[in-house]
Amino acid sequence: MNPLKHVAIIMDGNGRWGLKYKNSRNAGHKAGLETVETVIKETIKNKINFLTLFAFSTENWKRPKKEINYLFNLLENFLINRIEELHKNNIKLKILGSKKFSPKLNKLLNYSEKKTSKNNKLQINLALNYGSKLELINAFKKIFSSNKKINEKNIEKYLQTKDIPDPDILIRTGNTKRLSNFLLWQLAYTEIFFEKKLWPAFTKKDFKRIIKEYKDIKRNFGKI
C-alpha cells in the first residue's frame, strides 16, 4: 500500500458548472469553494500532510476583469471569515506564486501565512498567480547569481516548494487532460487522475475513490 503525503489538485470547471446550472460563472466559483472545504476535511481525515490547490494561474489574468475581481473578493472573504478556524484546526497556509494583488489581499495573505506558520496537522499550498515555467526560470536565475552548479538538488532548493514533498497524486477535474503549467518539475513521478466531473460536482466519494485507487498502484519510479 503506497504512503500518501501530498495531494495536488487542478480545480477545473467552476465557470462551466456555473453557466450550466446557475447561468453564472461566478456562481460556479462560489460553489467550488464548498468543494474545497469538503476536500480539506477529507484530507485531514486521511492524515494527508500536504494539499496543493491551483487557484489562479499566471495565465488567468487574461480572463474578464469582472470575473477576476469576483474571484479575489471570494478569496478575501474566505480568509477574513475562515483563517481563525484554519488556525484553530492546526492548518498551515502557504502561498505559491507572486503576490501581485491589491494591498488588501496581499495584507490578508501575509497575515494568514504568518498566523498559521507553526501549524503542522495539514499544510495547504494555495497556488495564486502561479506558473511553473516562471518558477523554474526564477530558480535558474538564483542558481546563476549564487554561482552554484546546475543539478537537481540546487534546482529544487530554489523552487517555491523546496520544503514540500513532491505530490503523490494530481487530480484534475473538468474533463481536461493537461497540466496547464502547474508544478511541471514536481509532478515528474506523480500519479495523475483526470476526472470528468466539474469541480463543484466533485464529491467526498470521488476523493476517497481516488485515494483507494492510488494506494493499490504499483509505483516503480523507473525500476521493474
Spell out the key features of this protein:
224 residues; alpha/beta; Undecaprenyl pyrophosphate synthetase; 7 helices; 16% strand
Q: How would you describe this structure to a colleague?
A:
It is built from 7 helices and 6 strands; from the N terminus they run E-H-H-E-H-E-H-E-H-H-E-E-H. With 224 residues, it is of the alpha/beta class. The protein has a single domain, classed as 3-Layer(aba) Sandwich (Undecaprenyl pyrophosphate synthetase), CATH 3.40.1180.10. Strands 3-4-2-1-5-6 form a 6-stranded parallel beta sheet, sandwiched between helices. The radius of gyration is 18 Å and the shape is globular. The mean pLDDT is 96.
Strand content bin: 15-25%
- At the fourth level of CATH, the homologous superfamily is Decaprenyl diphosphate synthase-like
C-alpha Rg (nearest Å) = 18 Å
How many DSSP E strands?
A: 6
Put simply, the count of helices is 7
Low-confidence stretches: none
Q: Within the largest sheet, what's the order of strands?
A: 3-4-2-1-5-6
Q: How many separate domains make up the residues?
A: 1
Q: At the third CATH level, what is the topology name?
A: Undecaprenyl pyrophosphate synthetase
How does the helix and strand content classify structurally? alpha/beta
End-to-end distance, in Å?
17 Å
* Helix-residue proportion: 40-55%
